[in-house]
Amino acid sequence: MTMSAPNRVRDPEGTVEKLTDAALQLFAESGYERATVDRIVAAAGFSKGAFYAHFKSKEELFLHILEQRLDHNLQRVKALCGLEGSARTWLKHVLATLLNFSAESKSMRSLSMEYMANGMRNPEIGERITVMHQRWRDLFADTLRGSDEYRDGRLKGSPEAIAYALVAMVDGFIVQIGMEADPRSKETLMIQVEPLLDAWFEERA
C-alpha cells in the first residue's frame, strides 16, 4: 500500500512540519473531530490556502502523522534487532523501548488512543494501522526465527504467534499507561510482564 504523504510542492518555509506539529498537538488535546482545519492553521500561523497546498484534507494530514509516528517507532525497534544476546533479552528491550516511547509525553499517549479510536470508526485509518502492525509482526517474527533459542528448539510457540501477542500487548499497555495517573505504571508493567516473556522460552538443559 502506498504511504500517505503531503502534496509534492516546494516548502521553503517548513509549512508541512509546522502544520504537522500544530495538528499533532490539537489531535492529542482536543480529539480528531474538534481539531478543525481552521484551528490547525490558526495554531500553525498559516492560511487555509497554505494547508490545502500540502494536504487534500484533515484526514490526509491525520494519516500522514499516523504513518510518520508508526514508522518512527518501527525504526527504533529495528535498531534493536542487531543487539547481541538472547531473544529473551531482545524482547524485553523491545517492550521497554515501545513503552518508553508511549510514556514520553501525555500528548503522545493521548494521540495513540485517538488513532485507535479513529481506526475503529474509519476503515482507511484502520487499514493503515493494520498494515503497520503487520510490519511490526513480520519484524519480530523474523528476528525470533534468527535467534539461538529458535534454532535450539527452546522457543515455546511459533515466532508468528509470539510476534502477534507482543504487538497486542504493546497496544494494550499504551492504553493502560495513558489512562493511569501513576507515573510508575510503566515500570510496574515491565515487572509484571517479565514472567510472561520468560514463559515463551525453555531453559537450556
Keywords:
2 domains, 0% strand, Tetracycline Repressor, domain 2, Arc Repressor Mutant, subunit A, elongated, disordered N terminus, mainly alpha, 205 residues
Structure, described:
The chain is mainly alpha-helical and 205 residues long. The protein has two domains: 11-55, Homeodomain-like (Arc Repressor Mutant, subunit A, Orthogonal Bundle), CATH 1.10.10; 59-200, Tetracycline Repressor, domain 2. Helices cover 72% and strands 0% of the residues. The protein has helices at 15-30, 37-44, 48-54, 58-78, 87-103, 106-121, 123-145, 148-151, 159-179, 185-198. Helix 5 (87-103) runs parallel beside helix 9 and helix 6 (106-121) crosses helix 7 (123-145). The radius of gyration is 19 Å and the shape is elongated. The relative contact order is 0.11. The model is unreliable at 1-5 (pLDDT under 50).
In short:
This protein is mostly helical and 205 residues long. The chain has helices spanning 15-30, 37-44, 48-54, 58-78, 87-103, 106-121, 123-145, 148-151, 159-179, 185-198.
- Integer-rounded radius of gyration: 19 Å
- Percent in strands: under 5%
Q: Which percent range fits the helix content?
A: over 70%
Distance between the termini: 45 Å
- Stated plainly, the CATH topology of the largest domain is called Tetracycline Repressor, domain 2
Architecture per CATH nomenclature, i.e. the level-2 architecture of the largest domain: Orthogonal Bundle
CATH class of the largest domain: Mainly Alpha
Sheet of most strands: none
